[in-house]
Design goal:
Elements: H1 11-21, H2 24-31, H3 35-49, E1 54-57, E2 60-63, H4 65-85, E3 99-104, H5 106-123, E4 128-133, H6 140-145, E5 150-154, H7 155-158, E6 165-172, E7 174-179, H8 191-196, E8 199-202, H9 211-218, E9 225-229, H10 235-240, E10 245-249, H11 250-257, E11 262-266, E12 274-280, H12 288-305
Parallel strand pairs: 3-4, 3-5, 8-9, 8-10
Antiparallel strand pairs: 1-2, 5-12, 6-12, 7-10, 7-11
Length: 311
């Protein structure tokens, strides 16, 4: 017998049919080939297995001992191959015990996680969500090895490798907030007044260079950053107690203004809108559970995107 490397595994299906029918003509009909083609297949099987397999007798074609010994192992192998080639089972969120891990900034957590948590609690009570903070280096290795399912954030900041899949969730733009009855900042501040005011900056890394500062530098200008904090949590409370301006994404400003007394103002600079995205690895593209998770996130993104930016 030839070794596995040189054996044509396609012949195993023909072998199974021939052993069931013990007749070349009927086997050809079942395989939708001509009798001549099936005779050729039987000849190849005999060569590959070094055995006549089916022998003509007065009562018809009869299998050899070698053929009979192979019938059940080959049938089991074909069943296993069929099982392996079946499409993956549909994901059932109601019974799943899966855990998903997402990398996101606190901004994305704030906007997405409340609705995502509600959807999962209702539709998939056994599913767990683990949120990790995004790091300065893009987490390509974690996406590849499956320890991370998706990355959420600003497309311009993440700059994902081209071979990853990147889906738009919603857009946002920079705005600024000040306390109600601020003594120096009007509803539509001019650049000079904006620069004269002390500023608060949210910077996870502690860097004093944000998108606004980069734009000001292009114009040969700068602002005074009086306070830097690493996260959003304390920011709105600090602004309500001071005369500082806080520049931040508009959708976050709207959420803050519903919690404390803040005015939302346009930033007096020509800044582009931001694209917020979800990124995943092509290795997980067809995973039914992964598809379900992505659709829940995308649905929330569409809802957010439907809300106009009124600046």
């Amino acid at each position: 017998m030839s070794n596995l490397r040189s054996f044509d595994l396609n012949l195993l299906l023909a072998f199974d049919v021939l052993m069931q029918e013990r007749n070349v003509t009927r086997a050809a009909d079942r395989m939708f080939v001509t009798q001549s083609a099936m005779s050729h297949t039987l000849h190849r099987l005999r060569q590959q297995l070094d055995d006549p397999l089916l022998v003509k007798t007065p009562s018809g074609m009869q299998p050899t001992d070698r053929a009979l010994a192979l019938v059940e192992p080959v049938r089991n192998l074909l069943r296993e191959m069929e099982r392996l080639l079946e499409p993956p089972q549909a994901f059932d969120p109601a019974s799943s015990q899966r855990r998903f891990t997402l990398a996101a900034t606190d901004y994305m957590e704030f906007l997405l996680l409340p609705d995502l948590s509600r959807l999962i609690e209702q539709a998939a009570p056994g599913v767990d969500i683990h949120i990790k903070r995004t790091e300065s280096a893009f987490p390509l290795t974690q996406l590849e090895n499956g320890s991370l399912d998706v990355v959420l954030g600003f497309a311009s900041v993440l700059e994902p490798p081209a071979h990853l899949i990147c889906e738009h969730l919603f857009r946002d733009r920079m705005a600024c907030v000040v306390r109600k009855n601020h003594p120096n900042i009007s509803a539509n501040p001019i650049l000079a007044h904006y620069l004269d005011a002390p500023h608060m900056l949210i910077s996870r890394t502690g860097s004093q260079v944000g998108v606004i500062d980069a734009k000001l530098a292009e114009l040969g200008l700068e602002r005074r950053i009086k306070l830097i904090v690493p996260h959003f949590l304390s920011a709105p409370l600090i602004v309500t107690q001071t005369d500082m301006i806080l520049s931040l994404p508009y959708r976050l400003a709207v959420a803050f203004s519903k919690m404390v007394a803040l005015n939302i103002l346009p930033v007096p600079l020509d800044l582009p809108d931001y694209d917020l995205v979800m990124i995943w690895h092509p290795l997980r593209e067809k995973d039914p559970a992964h598809c379900w998770l992505r659709e829940q996130i995308a649905a929330i993104g569409r809802m957010i995107d439907s809300l106009d930016i009124e600046l």
